[in-house]
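Lab meeting prep.
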Amino acid sequence: MVRELEAKVSGFKKERDALRSAAGTLEDKVSDLEKERQRLVAESSRLAEARDELRSTVKTLEGRLSDLLKEREDLEAKS
């Protein structure tokens, strides 16, 4: 009877150790995922800034093109 209980206790200890190991592995994976999430958030922010800068540049260039076309029309009208 005692040996049976000792065997069960030994089995429980092995299961406990396996669960602790699995928990450690999961903690490491969670940490890695949190770091990856932070990297992706930063990258998303950087891309949004680049997009906004490109939109601003496009607006500026469209304005400049409009000015040049108007100037060309004025010059053609004078000739």
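Slide two material, second protein:
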Amino acid sequence: MMDPVSAQNRRGDTALKILAAARDVFSERGFAGTTVDEIARRAGVNKATLYYQIGDKQTLYAGVILDVMGNAAEATASDLQDAPSPEEKLRTYIRNVAAAMDRNPWMPPIMLREMAAGGRNFPEAVTRGMAQIFSILGGIIAEGVRQDVLVAAPPLLVHLMIVGAFAFFKTSAPLRERQAGAGGNWLAGEEDRVSGTVATEVERLVLRALRKTPGEAG
């Protein structure tokens, strides 16, 4: 008779394989172009096992996105506790977004495809996860306004400035490589990483946009 713990571990391993395959297929084809058959094939399981372990395509899609969103929100909220000022909290937020994208390189193509589709495939749970992230950023901006060091700005637009820059940078690697041959790629050595030089530049630009100057209205 199989040990119950071993059976549970095996089920967990199978679910992880399915989610990993789903990440790859969704990033390559988007939600509309992805089939459960292809995910099952890449995971090395049959469709019955996939449905038993995870659920349907919509559930898989939500699981893939929420895994990153939940971890990123928790890590960012924890890291912000050590940041001494609104400006440093904003830098921490930006660095955490960059690190999350570098850890999950399949995420930018999924998000860009979904945005192009108008977000119609986002389940409610993903929308709530995004609201949690916007709430963290909104809290940083509000604190900066109260301390008279940042100007008021919609958290959604600021988040799009950050995520948009990173997502387009990571997905534009082939284009940037072609530009490098013509001397037009100032980040040729960065490949597709956004942590480091790219994140530092985004920090500088976002802080320049939000930092309150003497005499400026909040």
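Talking points for slide two:
The domain at 1-55 is CATH 1.10.10.60 (Arc Repressor Mutant, subunit A).
The chain has ten helices and no strands.
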